[in-house]
Every structure is written in C-alpha cells, then in structure tokens.
Specification:
Elements: H1 6-11, H2 22-37, E1 49-50, E2 55-62, H3 73-77, E3 80-90, E4 97-101, H4 104-114, H5 119-126, H6 130-143, E5 146-147, E6 153-154, E7 170-171, E8 173-179, H7 202-219, E9 222-228, H8 238-246, E10 251-255, H9 261-270, E11 275-279, H10 284-291, H11 295-309, E12 313-319, H12 327-334, E13 341-345, H13 360-373, H14 387-394, E14 413-416, E15 421-423, E16 431-434, H15 440-444, H16 447-454, H17 472-477, H18 492-495
C-alpha cells in the first residue's frame, strides 16, 4: 500500500478496540517519515527559509505527538478531542527528529517566512513592537523550524585553516557601547575622559536603534546595546531609551555605578539585562583612594542586591602597577557575591595618564598567577587577550579574547560617545566618524573603521591573531602606532 493513502484507509476501518484517533496518528507518523527522508540541499541560503524537512499536520485530537516516541498508558489517557497542529522537522545540525504541538509563535514564524512578510509590516498590522516579531523568528531559528543564513559579520582577512582560533573569524553578536552622558556621581583617578560633552540627543536615539536593528538584520546576527556613561542612569531619558531598545529585541547591558533597588526593579520590569557591570579597583582602601570614600562598601552591597534579585552582574577592574597584587584577594572577597571579576589593563589616557602600568615582566607574572588561580577562584573570568599566550603554551584551550574575537574594535562593537563621536574602542582615541552626521552603516564601512578592524600589521602572521591582536589602546597609550606596532606586553616570543 502507498504510505500516503494509509491514513485515509484507516479512517474507513472500525471495530472493537480500534481508537478513533488512529488514522490521525498515522498521518503524524507519515509526516515523520517525510521529514526524515527530506533532502537538505547543501547550497548556501541568502534569506530566512523554512526547514526543508518541516511537515505541518492539522489534527482533531490533542496530545497525539507524544505517542510517536512512547506509548505508555498515561500517554494514551491524555489523548482528548480537540484541534491541534502538529509540526514535525529534523534538526539542521544533527537530523534529530522533533514532533510537537505548534505554539502560536511557531505558526506565526512559519507564515512570516513562507510568505516573505516583512517583520515591520507584521508589527504594524498587529500593533506590537517589531522586536516581538523579530523574537518570534529568532526563536524559530533556535528551534530549527527556520534556517538562517550564516552570520555575515566576518573579518576582512583570508581564512587560514591552520589557525587554532579560526572559528572566531565570524561573530554572531554586534554590540553598541553607547555612552549616553558624561554626567557621573564619581570622579575616579583613572578616568580616561572627563571632557565636557553634551548628553546624547534623545531625538536621534530612536533612529539609531532602528539603524542598529537594520544593521544586524542584514548580517543575520543579534544586536546588543551596552549603555554606559559617565553613569548612564543619570541620563534623563534612560528608562525610555532602555524600553525602546528592548522593544527592538536587543540584548541589553548596563555599565554603570551602584544604584538603588527601586531603580533596578523598574529596569527589570522592562527587560532583564544580560549583565550589569560595575567597577572596583582592588581591596577597600585602594579602591576608595581611586573611586572615592565609601565606594567599595556601596558597590559590594549593590552587587549583593543584584545577585539577590537574580540580575546577572560582574565587576571590572582597571589593572595598574599598584593593584595587580589585589586582584586574587579581591576575588576571594567577591566569591558568592558577584557572577564574575575580570580586568582591563590601564590605558594611559585622560586622568589615567597619571597612574602607572606594571612593567612587562610584572604583567607576565601577574597573568601566570591569574591563570593558576582560575580553578580555585571560580569568580575570575577571562578578558585580556594575552591570556591566550599562556593557554597556548599549556595546551589548555584558547578562549575568545577581549571581545570574543580577539580585539573587537570596529568589528563586533563600536563605541558611541554622548556628543555623537564614534570610536573603534572607548579606551583610547580611535575616531571613525560621528553618528549625528553619518549612519551606522556608513561609519562601519568607513576607511577608518576598516583600519582598526584589520588590527596591527605586526600581528598579521601570528596564529593567535583571531583570538588576540593585543590591546591597541595600551599600545597607543605608550606612544606606539596601533596599526603597525605589536602590543608591548606580548610575551609569546619568550615562551613559544
């Protein structure tokens, strides 16, 4: 018998003990057969497409799908009369088969992709923020119902299959580090910019968010907005902007100072941030010398509040010659209080030029101690790309480096200052234009951005290039050319 006709055959059969839903169960099983035998074309796709194995089976009985993978008495007892749509597909990566009742979001995503409906049009028709529609498609891609083209956010370099970090050439997330205001309730001794800049014009904020959404959608990547300052919470329109970013389905992060519980509750009510980052510069006495009296206790209490509320949080430390010995002791004090402690090396710009970096030998000793402490201090996390030099030597596995792809300046992030200046990296003067004059696309494609994205020519032959590239901010702050000079703290040649 032809399998396609078997369900119809069962509809006309009857007799003692034959379930009324048997023919529809056969239709689901036929869909599973078609899904597992569907051909996945190896050709590259250039837009969102339905999974070629996807099968849609309307049925008039509920809870039939579970009978395809098990048939216990309790599963049979759950089968009741009622309309349901069963969707069946094979996962694109491993061909594992799934059958389940379609959720409303699944049906909507299938319709949007099948009929090539623009999410903006769908959002206008439904009267909802476009981020809701984007999230529906993103969820369908995660499930495997919809196939997305690969990320088009790629390094402008030739692929080298021998490079151990080659998988990091393509990024999946683009971050906008957005400095909303220069206003700050602190005056830290290492601050790299105390210049008098006006707050970001609110009337430009919404169009910038729309540009970021379009930028990410064209590249089939996720967007993140990291709100900073000064203290971003002092921006008069902070919650309005935060809500607008959430309505566009962006991941949101806050890089700021300690605040009160009520403010965090209002933020979480809009959308849980992917993390809230605060800064500490060492143990209490040293930290308060840098960030002001009482800052350490206020910040630690705030971290406890965030953790209690379930808000992901982390601590960033600016590494100098004078606090390098306090990082591990600080980790011991923060264990169980925060989700992570990491560091950036000081860049000698702004008021930070009055402080000292460790010597290269001192820095290498610090990194060795940091790596040795990782197993016993789980709060320590990885950021400085030069840690990969030690991991390579120890054959312990590389990590993504500073921004997940080595230095991500003008690659998977850019920094926008409150007056509209756009920099490849906020830690040093690296201008690529002004967002009040040009669009995000224009700035990203600019000659200046391409130069920063390419990194230093001195690193071009290094097999760690994709996960390292050193720190151009530190390089520039020591009077060297970040486009031609190697990070002066790189010690790979000493241990290779």
């Amino acid at each position: 018998m032809n399998p396609d006709s078997f369900p119809e055959f069962l509809e006309h059969q009857g007799g003692p003990g034959m379930p009324s839903f048997l023919s529809e169960l056969a239709r689901i099983e036929l869909s599973r057969h078609k899904a597992i035998t569907a051909e996945f074309t190896p050709l590259a796709i250039h837009s969102f497409s339905l999974n070629p194995s996807l099968q849609i089976t309307p049925v008039t009985w509920k809870n039939l799908a579970s009978l395809c993978v098990r048939a216990k008495k309790r599963d049979l007892d759950k089968v009741v009369s009622g309309n349901e749509i069963i969707i069946t597909w094979c996962q694109p990566d491993n061909r594992a088969m799934v059958s389940c009742a379609a959720e409303p979001g699944d049906v909507l995503a299938i319709k949007l992709v099948a009929e090539d409906i623009d999410p903006l049009d769908a959002a206008r028709e439904a009267g909802v923020p476009v981020g809701i529609i984007d999230a529906v498609i993103r969820e369908a891609v995660w499930k495997g119902l919809v196939i997305s083209p690969p990320s088009m956010l790629c390094r402008e370099q030739e692929r080298d299959e021998s490079s151990p970090g080659e998988e990091c050439v393509t990024a999946e997330v683009f971050s906008l580090q957005w400095h909303l205001t220069q206003e700050c309730d602190l005056h830290c001794r290492h601050c790299y910019d105390r210049s008098n800049r006006r707050a970001f014009p609110f009337e430009r904020a919404f169009t910038l968010l729309d540009e970021l959404r379009a930028f990410c959608r064209r590249r089939y990547i996720r967007g993140q907005v990291s709100l900073s300052g000064g203290n971003p919470l002092l921006y008069p329109h902070f919650l309005d902007l935060y809500r607008a970013a959430a309505e566009r389905d962006f991941m949101l992060a806050i890089l700021g100072n300690a605040s009160d519980r009520a403010t965090i509750e209002r933020i979480v009510e809009i959308q849980m941030p992917v993390y809230y980052q605060v800064s500490l510069e060492g143990l209490e006495q040293h930290n308060d010398e840098i960030r002001g009296a009482g800052n350490y206790r206020r910040t630690v209490d705030f971290l406890r509040t965030l953790t209690e509320m379930g808000v992901p949080n982390m601590v960033m430390l600016t590494l100098t010659r004078h606090n390098r010995g306090q990082v591990i002791p600080l980790a011991e004090e923060l264990e169980g209080i925060t989700g992570g402690l990491t560091f950036n090396r000081l860049a000698l710009f702004g008021e930070g030029a009055g402080l000292e970096l460790p010597t290269p030998d001192e820095y290498r000793e610090f990194l060795e101690a940091y790596v040795a402490a990782l197993d016993s201090h789980p709060v320590l996390t990885l950021k400085d790309s030069l840690l990969n030099t030690i991991f390579e030597r120890d054959n312990s596995g590389l990590f993504g480096g500073c921004a997940g792809y080595g230095c991500g300046a003008a690659f998977n992030f850019v920094s926008i200052l409150s007056d509209g200046e756009v920099h490849a990296c906020r830690k040093f003067p690296s201008p690529i234009g002004n967002i009040l004059i040009n669009s995000l696309e224009e700035l990203y494609a600019s000659t200046s951005a391409c130069r920063y994205r390419a990194g230093s020519s001195a690193c071009s032959g290094c097999s760690l290039n994709a996960v390292c590239r050193g720190c151009p901010a530190v390089t520039a702050s020591l009077g060297l050319d970040p486009f031609t000079a190697k990070d002066p703290y790189c010690f790979r040649h000493l241990i290779a």
